Amino acid sequence: MLTLEQIQAFDRDGYVLVPDVFSAREIEILLAHVTKDGRVTKHQWAALDADGRSSKLSLWADISDDVFGAVSSSPRIVNNARMLLREDIYHWHSKVMLKEAKVGGAWEWHQDYGYWYGDGCLYPRMISCMVALDPATKENGCLKVVPGSHLLGRLDHGKVAGQVGADQERVQAAIDRLGLKYCEAPAGRALFFHGNTFHSSEANLSERHRRAYICCYNALSNVPYSKNGHGKPEPIRVSPDDSILSFAEGVTA
User: Where are the domains of the chain?
Assistant: First the structure.
């Protein structure tokens, strides 16, 4: 469970890094399922950055009956997300980010609510949790955020290279005033961040992959008024705390 100080940091900065959310063994199991044929390869696509490099992404809206569903419904994520939003939530979508060594592209500055606003969500009562599957460093393109930017409201978004990004002039003005923070993290650490927090990442020109699993949630009070949106607006049945370990078969220690 998050501490009062961590909750206050999220309220102030729009993000909080939480150490040791998942063990080395749990991360090992997750990575084994990321790299084999299955859900990740089935849903995979790529987005180009301004330099023509691509980052791969796999996304789905259901809480599946597999190791990925075990993470998306983990009490270590779901209960903390509920605490940070101060209300019950439902699963919006989850995704695996694949920023491969030497070739993985950048993600341009954006807010997640910049996209999700178009799905008919009236409020930015939305939150994401990024779990580092590999050590995330400046060299391999870790996430970077603008502290306190969630308090600025939603920016207009439009085409930026092969992606959708926020108004770059306003983002730069926010960085000039608020600064930016590189969210370096060892494998197993989790970053919770608000739907309006500006974030981006640089290209991975290093020798090491930078892979991450991201679970996204919406408040049950914020169901889209349209027929758009992701996930089923129903309370999450939290999985047993050790459920990831039940998918260890075939994964060598």
Answer: 4-246
Contact 200, 110 (CB under 8 A): yes
Cα angle 70-76-78, degrees, rounded to a multiple of 5: 75
The pTM of the full predicted model, rounded to 2 decimals, is 0.95
- For the sheet with 199-201, list strands across it: 107-110, 199-201, 143-145, 181-182
Q: Which tokens is 120 given?
A: 């008919």
At 127-151, the pLDDT tens digits run 999 999 999 999 999 999 999 999 9
* C-beta separation of 57 from 46 below 8 A: yes
Name the CATH topology of 4-246: Jelly Rolls (2.60.120)
Is 23:191 a contact under the CB 8 Å cutoff? no
**Using CA atoms, how far apart are residues 105 and 122, in angstroms rounded to an integer?**
32
Taking the C-alpha atoms of residue 212 and residue 133, their distance in angstroms, rounded to an integer, is: 5
**Nearby residues of 195 by Cβ (< 8 Å), 6 or more positions away:** 111, 112, 113, 116, 124, 125, 126, 127, 128, 150
